[in-house]
Amino acid sequence: MSNQYEVLGKAPTPEDLKKLSPNEIHLTIKNLNAGYGKMEILHDFDLNVSKAQSLCLIGPNGAGKSTILHSIYGFTNIFSGQIEIDGKEITSLTPAQKLTSCGIAYILQDNSVFPDMTVEENLLMGGYSKESTDESYQEAERIFEKYERLRNRRNQPAKVLSGGERRLLEISRALVMKPSVLLVDEPSIGLEPRYIDMVFEILRDLQQNEKKNNYFSRTKCQKGIRVCRYRLCFSIWTNRNCWQRG
């Protein structure tokens, strides 16, 4: 074999990727080279995602899935390339600027609730950058109306929540800012099986009924495949991507 990576198949071209998102493009990544410190993790990475389209990044640990999400949100060093939302370049914006001006919210892989604060107080923290606290309260009320699990524990400290309820709280806290894009790193990591379906059903609902763009990473593909019609699979050694549309 002339190239040891030929077994992985041909990497898609930018034109191939555009075929997966034939409608109005929301997110565009062009020739992105990014990483941490001086280490480059992503090499000449391209991506197009339409509005109200969910994307599942599938690959083993170390393939670069989280780095893509981190790069979109502003957690990495961008060596070259460009990231756009609705045609506007956002490559050099800070995470705070991307949240407030572009509607991009990031949900950490690790537990990020404030355990000694109540569920309601955790939700209100999601609107910390809003100019009006009334807007935060209004969004919190809307979330309580939608999710009975949180409503029933409204005045209880977050530390009493189950793993699935904490994940629901983390997603809901991000929704207080009314983002158009949710970046979710390993949405079901560490959860009991009974809560995994709940989390992915929430993501499906946000995409189908509220027209949110959900971009999330998965090392296991079954649930992501059921939720998304757009999947991107990564090679751990090359960061080359092979795509599939359901």
Helix and strand layout, with pairings?
Blueprint lengths: L13 H7 L4 E12 L2 E12 L4 E4 L6 H9 L3 E9 L2 E2 L5 H8 L1 E4 L11 H7 L7 H14 L1 H5 L10 H13 L5 E5 L7 H16 L4 E6 L3 H6 L2 E5 L6 E5 L1
Parallel strand pairs: 3-8, 3-9, 6-7, 7-8
Antiparallel strand pairs: 1-2, 1-4, 4-5, 9-10
Helix pairs in contact: 4-7, 7-8
The structural domain count equals 1
- Quote the distance from N terminus to C terminus: 31 Å
Helix content: 25-40%
Estimated radius of gyration:
18 Å
Q: Give the helices and strands as they follow along the chain.
A: HEEEHEEHEHHHHEHEHEE
Helix-strand category: alpha/beta
- The first-level CATH class is given as Alpha Beta
CATH topology: Rossmann fold
CATH architecture: 3-Layer(aba) Sandwich
CATH homologous superfamily? P-loop containing nucleotide triphosphate hydrolases
Shape: globular
Instruction: State the strand order across the main sheet.
Output: 6-7-8-3-9-10
Average pLDDT reading: 80
Number of strands: 10
Helix segment count? Answer: 9
Poorly predicted spans: 230-246
Strand content: 25-35%
**Strand count, sense and closure of the main sheet?**
6 strands, mixed
What is this structure, in a nutshell?
The protein is an alpha/beta fold and 246 residues long.
Describe the structure.
By secondary structure, this protein is of the alpha/beta class. It has one domain (6-245): Rossmann fold (3-Layer(aba) Sandwich), CATH 3.40.50. It is 35% helix and 26% strand. The chain has 9 helices and 10 strands. Helix 8 links the parallel strand 7 (181-185) and strand 8 (213-218). Helix 7 (163-175) runs parallel beside helix 8. The chain is globular, with a radius of gyration of 18 Å. The two termini are 31 Å apart.
